[in-house]
Amino acid sequence: RQWHKRYLVPDDSIYDKNRDIIAHIPYKNEYFSTLAALFVRHLYQIITPPKKVIVVDCDNTLWRGVLGEDGIDNIHFDDMHHQLQNKLLQLSHAGMLICLCSKNEEKDVFDVFDKHPQMKLKSSDLVATKINWQPKVQNIQDIATSLNLGLDSFIFIDDNPVECAHVRAHLPEVFTLQWPTYAIEAECLLHHTWFLDPKTATKEDKNRTQLYQDEFKRQEEVKSSLSFADFITNLQLDIQFNNIENNTVERAAQLTQRTNQFNFTTIRRNIQEIQYLCSSNDHIVQIIHVKDRFGDYGIVGLIIVQCEKKTYTLDTFLLSCRILGRGIEHKIAAHIGQLAAQKNVDNIIFPLHFSQKNKPALNFLQEI
User: Fold this and answer.
1) Which of 98, 259, 350, 356 is the most exposed place for a label (fewest CB within 10 A)?
2) Beta strand pairing status for 311-319 and 295-307?
3) How do residues 275-307 score in pLDDT, each as one tens digit?
4) CA-to-CA distance for 94 and 75, rounded, in angstroms?
């Protein structure tokens, strides 16, 4: 019923009393269409790789008016702008990363975010900003590089048709949405763009903005360190290998769905499949939890080892892309070696199902 308003379902278009009595067909034809749409919409969430980043414009998108011309006191916030900001906050709490890409002066924009009473989004809700006069195509590419995420996980929202066309032409992997001028079209876009449906949030999802903000602090530490070895030492990494519990199984399944770059087999699994493997006598299933002096990365990795008498085969070996470059993958490989040695296992097999996205996994195998 929470979808009825969104799909404009009148109360008298749902139940068919006569057909229910005659043939146990409880709904009218129009309502079966609504149910079919909802079914496919939810299925789409399961089978489609998730979007991870929303890059949004400012002028005439987050507010009405041009900040550089009108000034902070003369921009306006209509209901459609508040709806967009509420949607962005909802998606942020579900784990998506909110970024800005605007042709403006940076100080003016942050004054709106932190001082304007009608601004719901705050600068603390943002993971990355590109507020300058450079082409937005270049700015989006720079954001993707700094976040270490693929462009196919990006959504771009801008009111300007020229900017949207430019991004579509040069970055076709990015899902580009032109923000409408009129409220009824904006409401329809927010209600029926399936990529904007929030997913169930894990603990890591709810903290994802903070996790990436911590990551940028680490990148500053890299710049100030004398060497990469010094940087790793100063991080004070704490790596824990834990068996999966009821409160972490959802995160383990989510990692198999979301991780592409450092993922040896890219096998996708749901919660039930993970639970089955955990109960199996011939599999080792462990999650990897990492902390350092800047903060808690959360659960960032998963290994599933198929155990035979003389051979361990890595069914799954994956690590979140935001943790790469810390040497953690080497620690995991060493840990697997220790597990094998404890059982006098002679061989460890690392299968690699190569794709265009998991080249970091191939590079790691070549290193070791």
Assistant:
1) 356
2) antiparallel
3) 999 999 999 999 999 998 888 888 999 999 999
4) 29
